[in-house]
Specification:
The complex is a heterodimer of chains A (315) and B (266). By secondary structure, chain A is mostly helical. A two-stranded antiparallel ribbon of chain A has the order 1-2. In chain A, helix 1 runs parallel beside helix 12 and helix 8 packs across helix 9. A 6-stranded mixed β-sheet of chain B has the order 6-7-8-3-9-10, sandwiched between helices. Chain B has a 4-stranded antiparallel β-sheet with strand order 2-1-4-5, covered by helices on one side. Classes of the chains: A mainly alpha (315), B alpha/beta (266).
Chain lengths: 315, 266
């Protein structure tokens, strides 16, 4: 199971993650913080960044395999738009309901959209492509409602909503971070246990069926697990882009596409990447806080292009 | 008379409202190679996919060793009958060897962490790749292979899957002559090892070389079914390709029936 490339990917990934954690604990708004600041403010932030990084990249990798589509990312299915709708709605009504560190209204919105998608996935005879399109349309619906709500609200509401839409880790608290880390890990493990089915889905829907996978059932349960994972990540941190798209492609370049290897490495590299992006955001904008989503997009977009073109040359 | 390994009885299928198959039946004995022949759009591949359980039947029943085959779970079906597609395609990087190990996935239980590459599986994969002349391609990515090479890989994956009934959907169509001949021999070897094969081919003359029995299809209906020599007559073949000049003769080397198209001015 462990060949040389995979071993290197594990070692470098864990090393990068550890380095990002140390830097993240060391640097912040001030450089000479005492231990209390580090434990109370920075540690939860590191834990939350790791949890969300794990969740987004594992969800992205699984969705890409499920839909046989390299362009899929955790937000493709529209779950995040449900969360955004809930969050913006809640924030502008001054309704701050925090449930285990998650923005309660966002989580409710995400769950609502998950349920809608699950109903669609259970329609008899629905193809993978129409399921994907249904998710994308759900996303458009959610975003346009968010835009409508923002157009109707005042400057304060827009400011808060914008911070949330860009992805923000600054509100991390210890309890919530631990909860997010725990649930994200459990759901990641649940997806990892489906490595056999995800591998077969690499050959497409028909291919997976002929390899002995009950595609309809597997698809519905995978979607539910992934949607829940995305819902938790998004309600904890807002919409952090690019991690769920770039990390899976990056790790595939290192170790190939088989999921027994791919998913744990995505978890490690995703955690490392988001933790590193977060410390970069804090250091760059010192003493202010830059939304981490801006950094992931700024670094992620060129990185993705590089992955894309280096692959083109290789083949 | 021994009972057939695979039987399909009264198969009907339609895409939406367009009927594609109308009341087609066939039987496959152990160790036999059956060729499904017919013009483009006659329903050959559709029939194969319907038997494999990829397409839902409108009417009819498929029996594998006497049991209602399509009632089984996909995993049990994949262990008994393997469908070989005309091409292997993956959106993501996948080496030839990885694609072939996927054939073992129907022998693993869901949720297991036992990797396909147990020493037994690894040996099976190597053996199948050597038999299908693609061991040299093992570390190449699928999308860097030619169409014919991918077909060798698809055939190796089918061997690894270990099912005793093989359904080949134009599975040799893009191989070069040498590979086609070698794989034809391999198919014959497989039947002596107890496998039974249904193959779809638009190349009548290639199929007639390997097949024991034939089923001729035209517009989704069965024209003739039986031993290949009694099925491939001039009268039957003219029904398949109405309006074209053709004649049927015997191969000087093997005696297999061959169809010659075109006008011969002799």
């Amino acid at each position: 199971m462990l060949n040389k490339r995979a071993l290197h990917a594990y070692i470098f990934g864990l090393f990068a993650w550890a380095l990002a954690i140390i830097l993240s604990l060391k640097f912040g708004a001030t450089s000479d913080a005492d231990i209390g600041v580090i434990v109370q403010l920075r540690l939860p932030r590191v834990l939350l960044a790791s949890a969300v990084g794990i969740g987004l990249s594992v969800a992205g990798a699984s969705l890409q395999a499920l839909f046989s589509n390299p362009l899929c990312e955790p937000y493709t299915l529209g779950i995040s738009s449900g969360a955004a709708l809930g969050a913006v709605f809640g924030a502008s009504l001054g309704f701050h309901w925090i449930f285990a560190g998650l923005t309660g209204t966002a989580f409710a919105g995400a769950l609502l959209f998950t349920a809608l998608l699950f109903v669609v996935a259970h329609r008899p005879g629905i193809t993978t492509l129409s399921l994907l399109l249904a998710g994308v349309m759900l996303g458009f619906l959610g975003s346009s409602l968010v835009a409508l709500w923002m157009a109707l609200s005042d400057a304060n509401g827009i400011q808060g909503a914008l911070l949330w839409l860009l992805g923000d880790l600054s509100r991390a608290r210890m309890g919530g971070a631990l909860f997010t880390l725990g649930t994200a890990s459990v759901l990641t493990l649940a997806l990892w246990l489906r490595w056999r089915e995800l591998d077969a889905l690499l050959m497409g829907e028909e291919g997976a069926l002929t390899l002995g996978i009950a595609v309809g059932k597997v698809r519905a349960s995978l979607i539910f697990t992934i949607a829940l994972l995305v819902a938790i990540c998004v309600s904890a941190s807002g919409m952090i882009g690019f991690i769920g798209l770039v990390i899976p492609h990056f790790v595939r370049r290192l170790v190939g596409s088989l999921h027994l290897r791919l998913l744990p490495l995505c978890a490690i590299w995703g955690a490392a990447a988001l933790t590193a992006a977060d410390v970069t955001a804090r250091v760059l904008a010192r003493p202010y806080d830059l939304p981490v989503g801006i950094v992931t997009a700024l670094v992620g977009a060129p990185l993705f292009l590089w992955i894309l073109f280096s692959r083109r040359e290789a083949s | 008379m021994s009972s057939p390994v695979l039987g399909a009885y009264g198969i009907s299928f339609s895409y939406g409202r367009t009927p594609v198959l109308k009341d087609v039946s066939l039987e496959l004995e152990r160790g036999e190679i059956l060729a499904l022949l017919g013009p483009n759009g006659s329903g050959k591949s559709t029939l194969l996919k319907a038997i494999a359980g990829i397409l839902p039947l409108k009417a009819g029943v498929v029996r594998h060793r006497g049991e209602d085959f399509l009632r089984n779970t996909p995993q049990m079906r994949a262990r008994a009958v393997v469908y070989v597609p005309p091409d292997l395609h993956a959106e993501f990087p996948l080496t030839a060897r990885e694609a072939i190990t996927l054939g073992r996935s129907c022998h693993l239980n869901p949720g297991t962490f036992r990797y396909y590459r147990s020493s037994n599986d690894r040996e099976l994969v190597r053996e199948a790749m050597e038999r299908c002349l693609c061991w040299g391609l093992r570390d190449q990515d699928l999308h860097t292979l030619s169409g014919g090479e991918r077909q060798l890989v698809a055939l190796a994956r089918a061997l690894v899957q270990g099912a005793k009934v093989l359904l080949l959907d134009e599975a040799l169509s893009r191989m070069d002559l040498n590979h086609q001949a070698t794989m034809g021999k391999l198919l014959r070897e497989l039947t002596t090892e107890g496998s039974s094969i249904v193959l779809v081919s638009h190349d009548v003359n290639l199929a007639s070389e390997w097949a024991d029995t034939g089923l001729l299809l035209r517009k989704g209906q069965s024209v003739a079914f039986g031993p290949i020599k009694t099925v491939l007559t001039e009268e039957n073949v003219r029904k398949l390709y109405p309006g074209s000049e053709l004649s049927v003769g015997a191969s000087p080397a093997t005696g297999a029936p061959k169809v010659f198209f075109g006008t011969f001015q002799s």
